[in-house]
Input
Amino acid sequence: MLAGRKILLIITGGIAAFKAIDLMRMIKKAGGDVQPILTKSALEFVTPLTAGTVAGNPALSELFDLGREAEINHIELVRDADLIVVVPATGDFMAKMAHGFADDLASTAILARDKHVIVAPSMNVRMWEAAPTQRNFQTLVDDGMSFVGPDKGEMACGEFGLGRLAEPDVIFAAIKDYFFTFGENLPLKGKRVLVTSGATREPLDPVRFLTNASSGKQGTAIASALRAAGADVEFITGAADVPPPDGVNVTQITTAQDMYDAVHEALPCDVAIFCAAVSDWRPKAVGDKKIKKNGDGTAPSLEMVLNPDILHSVAQLEPDQRPQLVIGFAAETNDVVKHAEAKLVRKGCDWLLANDVSAGSGTFGGDHNSIIFFDGQGHQEWAQMSKAEVGQKLTNQITSYLKQPD
Ligand SMILES: Cc1cc2nc3c(=O)[nH]c(=O)nc-3n(C[C@H](O)[C@H](O)[C@H](O)COP(=O)(O)O)c2cc1C
Output
């Protein structure tokens, strides 16, 4: 997700400095490169050994390090980076940034910057509310820096109020958002993609419903890969075991009819992917009270009616309203190819991804999937891979398709 992105991470001398280490781990895990710079005070809170080991790059601190200045020029350090992040930012360091001080490596890098800066302040509530800090905050916003936090809560000193460092995952989300918003070469930038995911629930009465075993993991992985490729993702989800990915527009629904309405409301879009496990039918009558056993002790019988066919309804739209690419999923337990080929024709979609969800396949709820991909010309068996890899592979196919001349 952050592959190839270089982040200059400035750690200053606040009590929350250790949280910068968690942030570094997240950036590294997402494929980003981190160059840590520690102020002299930060060295009191985290060791350069920890910071350097987690980052995989030596933690720098001294402006005048003759050995290194030859190798790492402090200006080049900034030119090399794609983004500068200050975590935590002390009241002191905010003052230095606002006034252009450059008496150590961290502040010199800030003054020499030609990159965007994200600042995550952390300090005692009185320090944060102090008039000079508020003036500095305003100056830094006017200078174009963006801020994450501070949050309100209990402080290390026992006081309560605004000043706590934003959680590392929130700072991480702001970093990813920066690259999504300003990343110029993302292949799906400007494309609007709708993804449905999860399981619908059809109520029988106020306490019971019909559903299925979809975990939402595949739809979530697809939405996440599309977002990482720069798409604006409309994510319409039923019940799921995993949270929606960051950075997508989420609509939570319950029934198939809700999903139908949400999908049609979210149109138009360039690509629509129907990965949700939608109930084909629902109980004809929904009791407003809990259904009881029959008087003679027998079970009540259920009468079902058909739900609207969402995939078909979108695939059949007039050309000026129809997404350029309509992609369906088929969950089959037997004769996967035969059923999937018939479904592609019946629904009128462009591509279909069929997966075997029979008992023992491990597809429902698992982290892997075995896909057979149909594009109307024929089919291709994809090797078993993780759901994240399926998301990436599908995103790549979509990107290549949209690149083709009309
Ligand atoms: C134990 C301790 C904790 C501190 N925590 C913070 C803090 O959370 N935020 C802050 O702005 N300053 C804090 N300070 C004060 C800064 O360390 C001090 O202002 C220092 O000069 C900051 O230097 P720097 O901005 O160059 O890193 C703390 C000081 C001590 C001794």
